[in-house]
Amino acid sequence: MSLPELFFTERQKHLLSWAEGGPVRAHMEDAETLRITSPTPHGEPRAPHDIAVTGDALLYAQASESFVSFALDGDRLDVTHHALDGTRHGWSTALPTAPRGRWALQDVIETRSAAGGTGFALTVVDEQDEEEEEEEGEAEGDTLLLVAEGAGTVSHRPRAAGSLVHWDEGAAVVVLREDRGPFQPLLRAEPLDVDAARPVITTEGRWLDGRDGEALVLTDAPGAPRLALWNLRDGSLRHPDAGPGPGPGAVDDARFIGAGTSSALVVRTYEGTDRAWLLDLASGAAEPLDTPGAGRLLLRVATPRGAGLYGLSTTEGTSYRWISPDGAVECAPGAVPPDPALSPPTHTYLGTTPALVYEPPGETTAAVIALHGGPESQERDELRWDGLYRELLHRGVLVVGLDYTGSSGYGNAFLRRPWKDWETAFGRDLDACLTALRDRGVTAYRTALLGGSFGGSLALLGCVLAEDLAGAVAAAPLTDIRRQAARAAADDARYAAWFSERYDLASPLARQRTFDPEHLTTAGPKQRVVIVHGENDQVTSFQDSSALVARARELGLPWSLTADASGHVPDDADEARFRHDQVRDALAAVLDLP
Predict the structure, then answer these.
(1) Mapping DSSP to helix (H, G, I), strand (E, B) and coil, where does residue 508 land?
(2) CA dihedral 585, 587, 589, 594 (to 10 degrees)
(3) I need a labelling partner for 226 at 20 to 30 A (CA). Which of 29, 148, 308, 578 fits?
(4) Exposure of 355 by Cβ count < 10 A (0-12 exposed, 13-18 middle, 19+ buried)?
């Protein structure tokens, strides 16, 4: 199995818990079977445990470390707990009668019940047959139901639309998330008693975790993300990492750890690498945890026994970390092994532009400047492009992961600086990068740009700004900013303001619009440009890319388009391998690699 296939397959496995010897994981073996695999300590094999996927919903309950299936039968709900050791336990409860038809389950989340055990909050909708719906008008909105073994059902009708993310019986509130397109979600904590004098309290931010009247939310993202402790009773918002916080860098994720709300596991990103910290929420004191070589850390699960992290790095491969409430760390390797011939990347500044620089193990013969998507994202030491950096480095190609102006992770001023003047800002970034490469003996003729999504748009723009570049490979780029903005606004009107704030859509001049077919095809006449785009992309337009390449070829430019059947990113292991191979071969052609 190739590295892209191996990596894709591993990412489909869900980290559940930790047993002696390593991680406990689950994956869909087929459409009807969930397979749980456990580590094999002392060489003793453990047979996988299969769970039949039946009913209306299946949830992994982290508090009890079990899968829970839910089946609605009229006004009765059947609940079955499937423990990780293969044992089962079931119970049933009566639901209130649906006023006009029957309940249909839309979603379910884990919570705590007043009885002190695990409970579940269901989002249901009252379905009625089509004839009644036409006569009576539109169906009513969602109903929320709290169920727990041995307890009665509690019902709540939300005052406003939104997805349920938390039900807190102690604070007597439910928390709903209103997704607002490109802007920060609005979190609304409304009292369970609709007649109560307490008002609905709100905050903007990303929901992370909640329990016992407290919630962890991420505010001020993506420019300057900060961890906040939100009191669900009075609405107060407190930043426990006041001052420098738990180490340098921006908060990426966090969860409560242990039995209460006194401490949290926090993942922060600094200079392209993630670090984990144990944070005392009362004092703000933070203890760094032992996670070297992990690269990017994805927080996958948080149980009363601890939290599980998935690490991925270009040089160090993949790994799993388990953090106990006292900060002890256990580690196990993932499917992608380290590459001992390669050194971890160096975070540096090329002029004023930050970058991660990956050095080849031998002589440098060429360079690739890699441009992340977003634009409000950043380069990290992770398995970017499904391990492609590894192959390039072993072929003598130096890789620069450029955090161009407009990236997140370096403050609001850095993020906003290029708005409506991307050409000037990216021109400075590219000049600084090419100057640094030239000082190392790598000319622009031996340098290619590689970008995905918005990074692909910048790769095409780079060929306009520096005609002596070898060329570019752009995967799923945005190639017509006006058409892209119009499509996004048609789906969600809030995108109109987002795009107009960042791009000069109103200008009659293609150069000022920047990401316009007329301007992007003023690239150098000898530059090889390859666009790789999935025909089923729902984010950026394959048709726009096809039209751009057709225009370039009419102008005599040596451009080409490689199509595949994927979406914006590959949807399965075969598509991941195909996309990887197409990008690799395109770069080899642009740089004339042996």
Answers:
(1) coil
(2) -80
(3) 308
(4) buried
**Strand ranges in 388-515 using DSSP code E only, listed in sequence order:** 397-402, 447-452, 471-475
Tokens 């938390």 sit on residue: 166
CA distance 311 to 324: 17
Burial class (CB within 10 angstroms; exposed 0-12, middle 13-18, buried 19+) of 387: buried
Beta strands at 286-288 and 273-280: parallel, antiparallel or unpaired:
antiparallel
Beta strands in 519-564 (DSSP E): 528-534, 559-564
pLDDT at 134 > cutoff 60: no
- Which pLDDT value is given to residue 85? 86
Q: Is 506 helix (H, G, I), strand (E, B) or coil?
A: coil
| Residue 512: both structure tokens together | 């000022």
Helix (H) or strand (E) holding 51: strand 49-52
What would the two tokens of residue 563 be?
A: 């199509």
In one letter, which amino acid is 317? G
Q: Rounded CA gap, 165 and 145, in Å?
A: 13
- Biggest CA-to-CA distance, the chain: 76
Which pair of structure tokens corresponds to residue 587? 């770069």
Q: What is the pLDDT of residues 237-279, one digit of tens each?
A: 999 865 444 456 789 999 999 888 899 999 999 999 999 999 9
Residue 59 corresponds to which tokens in the numbers above?
């949830």
pLDDT for position 113: 67
H-helix or E-strand spanning residue 463? helix 454-465
Question: Cis link prior to 158 (omega < 30° from 0)?
Answer: no
What the block records as the tokens of 48 is 């996988």
Q: Is the peptide bond before 517 cis (omega within 30 degrees of 0)?
A: no
One-letter amino acid for residue 247 of the chain: G
Mean pLDDT in residue range 79-83: 95
CA 455 to CA 450: how far, in whole Å? 8
User: Can you list the positions of beta strands (E) in 281-352?
Assistant: 286-288, 296-303, 306-313, 317-323, 329-333, 346-350
pLDDT (tens digit per residue) in 542-557 = 999 999 999 999 999 9
DSSP annotation of 97: P
What does the alpha-carbon distance between residue 228 and residue 355 come to, in Å, rounded to a whole number? 29
**Cα dihedral 405, 408, 414, 415 sign:** positive
Instruction: Tell me the HSE value of 78 on the side-chain side, using a 13 A CA sphere.
Output: 9
Residue 46 has what pLDDT? 76
Q: How far is CA 48 from the centre of its chain?
A: 29
Task: For 145-197, give the secondary structure using H, E and C.
Answer: EEEECCCCCEEECCCCCCEEEEEECCCCEEEEEEEECCEEEEEEEEECCCCCC
**CA 498-504-508 angle, 5° bins:** 140
Contact 214, 231 (CB under 8 A): yes
Question: Which string of DSSP letters, residue by residue, matches 119-155?
Answer: EEEEEEEEE--HHHHHHH-SPP--EEEEEETTS--EE
pTM over 0.85: yes
What gap in Å lies between CA 478 and CA 481, rounded to an integer? 7
